[in-house]
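Now for today's protein:

——
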Amino acid sequence: MTTLRTERLLLRPPTLDDVDLAGELLGDERVMRFLGGGVVPREAWPVVVEKWLERWRDNDMGVFLLEHDGRFVGRCGILMWDTRTWTLSKRGEPSAVPELGWTLAYDAWGNGYATEAARAVRD
């Protein structure tokens, strides 16, 4: 796993210590309404972070956590999806396709962070 930098952002792989940061996204209904579901209960936040780490282990790619001036502002990265079932997949499987996506903390919306981070991940 690698770390990326842009003009304003630090993009770093998640760790198991990032559960509370993940909760800033997972526990906010304003954010989660765009991700196909409701908020994730606090007790499930570690499971989500572990899945992010699993994606890195399985695919050598995954989501980065985004920081601006040392403050968490969201996540951005590439996930592999099985196009038959639209469930997470592994690179190299026949129906696996990559998706570049992002999720920003509500108070970080409107600052161009998603575009900046997505370009860095894509490149």
In short: DSSP finds four helices and six strands in the chain. The chain has a mean pLDDT of 94. Residues 44 and 76 are 20 Å apart (CA to CA).
